[in-house]
Amino acid sequence: MYGYIKGYVKKIKENQLIIENQGIGYLIHTSSNTLRDSVLNHEATVYTHLYVREDMIQLYGFISEEALVLFEQLIKISGVGPKAALAILSLSDVPQIKQAIAQGNHVFISKASGIGKKTSERIIIELKDKLKADVLDTDLPQSDSVTSVYYDNVLEALVSLGFNPSEVQSILKRIDQTNLTEDEVIKLALKKLGK
């Protein structure tokens, strides 16, 4: 029904924007990334999705079309509603979220509020192949983006096993993480740490 709404940002609150266009204030549910990029009383273009259920009609929107497309892909998955999709889109920027899904990083996805391990694995199963081509087309070097997605999780896991944080960081810098899952990175690190 609405492809996008262009107007002035009149209100920013938790997970919501009000965009005024020709005297109408549109209440748009959105991610923390879109909120961060929105400036009060400045013009913005928000790409929208009208979500209709028996008991509700809500408008969801994002500053980038790429975020809207990913949102629409997520809400098609069984068990992933709009709130869960917003939580996932609030984890990081869209290219990094796509990278995490394409790499099968369910730990990263399950950091989103309301997303458990089973749901994150379902998301990966449904979207992994669809997003691989997008991820390969990005300008980000694969190894850098994988490192940024996995680094904190791997470091935390290894430190919890009793390893020295600085030693773990040194080992992780020497591992080529291209095309490796988080579990594979941990296994390689453990070998290098002598376990």
How would you describe this protein?
With 195 residues, the chain is an alpha+beta fold. The chain folds into three domains: 4-62, OB fold (Dihydrolipoamide Acetyltransferase, E2P), CATH 2.40.50.140; 73-137, Orthogonal Bundle (DNA polymerase, domain 1), CATH 1.10.150.20; 142-192, no CATH class. The protein contains nine helices and five strands; from the N terminus they run βββαββαααααααα. The protein has helices at 32-36, 65-75, 82-89, 94-102, 106-109, 117-137, 142-160, 165-173, 182-192; strands at residues 4-13, 16-21, 24-29, 43-53, 56-62. A five-stranded mixed beta barrel has the order 1-2-3-5-4. α7 (142-160) packs antiparallel against α8. The longest helix is centred in the middle third of the chain and has 21 residues, at 117-137. 31% of the residues are buried. Mean pLDDT is 85; it is low at 139-148.
Sheet of most strands? 5 strands, mixed, barrel
What topology, given as strand order, has the largest sheet? 1-2-3-5-4
Briefly note the CATH topology name of the largest domain.
DNA polymerase, domain 1
Series of secondary-structure elements, N-terminal to C-terminal: EEEHEEHHHHHHHH
